[in-house]
TrEMBL record:
Pfam families named in the record: PTS_IIB (PF02302)
Protein's name according to its UniProt entry: Galactitol PTS, EIIB
Key word Transferase present: yes
Positions of the Phosphotransferase system EIIB component type 2/3 domain: 3-89
GO molecular function terms listed in the Swiss-Prot or TrEMBL record: protein-N(PI)-phosphohistidine-sugar phosphotransferase activity
A GO BP entry: phosphoenolpyruvate-dependent sugar phosphotransferase system
Taxonomic lineage from the root: Bacteria, Bacillati, Bacillota, Bacilli, Lactobacillales
InterPro entries per record: PTS_EIIB-like_sf, PTS_EIIB_2/3
Length: 105
């Protein structure tokens, strides 16, 4: 099971919206084996290593980026998912992150 974490300031409103979008996308494309959760940014550094993909709504801090780099966790811009600003390419970075993990295993 791949685990995805979405983080925003409080872990409630914005991140929950993105989690819903990701779950809908996965369901619509019959993708299973991916768990999507949310956390608040204050707790992220302590839990990030437990996840396979990090979807961010505010640019990762140097500490968070270092964890991603050291643990091999792809980080994905969740703002595009929140706004849908890239149209059909909105979920492309997310799909690429999942595919890179699948091919690495």
């Amino acid at each position: 099971m791949l685990k995805v974490v979405v983080a925003c300031g409080s872990g409630i409103a914005t991140s929950e919206t993105v989690v819903g979008s990701l779950r809908t996308f996965l369901e619509e494309h019959s993708v299973s084996g991916v768990e999507v959760e949310t956390t608040d940014f204050k707790q992220l550094a302590g839990v990030l290593a437990n996840y396979d993909v990090y979807v961010w709504l505010a640019k990762p801090t140097p500490e968070i980026q270092q964890i991603c780099d050291e643990e091999g966790i792809p980080d994905v811009n969740g703002v595009d998912i929140l706004t849908g600003s890239k149209g059909d390419k909105t979920f492309l970075d997310f799909v690429n992150a999942l595919m890179s993990l699948k091919s690495a295993s």
